[in-house]
Amino acid sequence: MNKITPPRALAAKYYLDQGVYDKVREDVYYKTWQFACHQSRIAEPGSYLAFSIMDEDLFVARQKDGSVRCFYNVCQHRGHTLVEGEGKSSVLVCPYHAWTYELDGSLRAAPGTKKMESFDKSAICLTEIKVEIFCGFVFVNLDPDAKSMSETFPGVEEAIRALCPDVEERSFAHQHSAPEYCNWMVSVENYNECYHCKVVHPTFAEGVIDPGSYNIRPDFDGAKVLHHSAGASSGEGAWYDTSGSDYGSFYLWPSFSLQIYPGGMVNTYHWRPASVSDTTVYR
């Protein structure tokens, strides 16, 4: 009879070593789909939202034709940050020297350059990033050759829509952030187990889902972890109406998860690493 080898955690260096963190930044975060925002946060033309992926500052903007584009948040003149937070504007004006860009990233005007015969503003534009809207959520990828979301996460869109057919019509309601003083992988690993649910989330474990049916299915080839559970039989103790559907959680490598609760409530998690030993989770 073959002896079963007990599972072991990764060596400590993968969570503590700066070199590993730097390699993850270059080989993982800069080459995978990263969550930017829900499309309803930039619903109108001219709406924009700034965010960061590790040490790269970016922003997404709704175009006049209704499409969404993403750019590095850096003026092409002296590298100043173009926009902060979120807002709405018909043009993008650098606060340092007032270089002005159209929403599509092209340069509209640069003060003091009309007398420069060699200055060709048509040759200057913001650097664009690959962007895709997936079930109403805006994702970006620093890798221009990245496969699409549907190719990267096969079957996920269909499974999400099966639980929540109107997911794309949902609107952003609220975001809460919390610093977690640990490596981002520690937080992600904690999320992808429900061993702690009865202790830490008793209302969820007893009033929202049926804990006996909770199932976690990793799909390493598909870069995802799927959680599924039937809804609680009575729903007593839940903070909202849980009737109508099962529970599903869709963790998409490396830093995003979409949760659909019984009753149709939709929630997201995404992780933003700040250093090798610090990350912020947004939900």
Regions with pLDDT < 50 over 5+ consecutive residues? none
Spatial strand order of the main sheet: 1-10-9-4-3-2-5
Distance between the first and last residues' Cα: 46 Å
Q: What is the residue-averaged pLDDT?
A: 93
Number of strands: 17
Largest sheet: 7 strands, antiparallel
Helix content: 10-25%
Strand content: 25-35%
Order of helices and strands: HHEEEEEEEEEEHHEHHHEEEEEE
Overall shape? globular
Rg from C-alpha positions? 22 Å
Coarse structural class: alpha+beta
Number of helices: 7
Notes on the structure:
The protein is 16% helix and 31% strand. With 283 residues, it is of the alpha+beta class. The model has no long low-confidence stretch (mean pLDDT 93).
